[in-house]
Target: Ancillary SecYEG translocon subunit
Amino acid sequence: MAVYDLEEQEQISELKAWWARYGNFVTAIAVAAALASVGWQGWQYYKNRQAGEAGALYFALEQAMINGDAQKTREAAGQLIEKFPSTAYAEMGALASAGVQVEKGDAKNARAQLEWLLAKGSDPALKDIARLRLAALLLDEGAFDQALAQLANAPAPALKARFEDLRGDVLAASGKPAEARSAYQAALDALAADAADGGETLREVIRVKQQALEG
Model:
């Protein structure tokens, strides 16, 4: 049996007293830390697995786009939205599929996917593009006020010229030539401010539309 001197006995007594008072708390902290570590590792595994499955679906969507298969593109986008709505793949898939549906004349499905992206998406750049495309669809439908509402909030600077150009189209179609000219001028100003844009074709198209209204 071990023999302790007086000082060691006092230290042991203090340790026992401390453990009696705080032992349960320390044990609980240790268990919580262990559970948190296991939970974190599980969450990381889940996220990685989700990303992998979503990536595979997005690849299938891209292949369908390359093949010009609007139905398979739409189905792949639908699965991304249903199963992996919080991933970037779902947002990109909705936007890509909407473009294919428009090309195939299916404005209804294109609009549904754009509206989902605007309601549930988190990427500001993708949402700006979705607003622009949705406004173009609404213009085609003659829903001028709704189209203008989509264009009301300022987009990222890189898209300002295209927003103003489309706003000019909507205003011109709704019988407001003076406001349309102002929107076209704002688009030209935005292009002039962005020296790296290189949008000469867009500039010329906007100038022609602006001059047509002046005529």
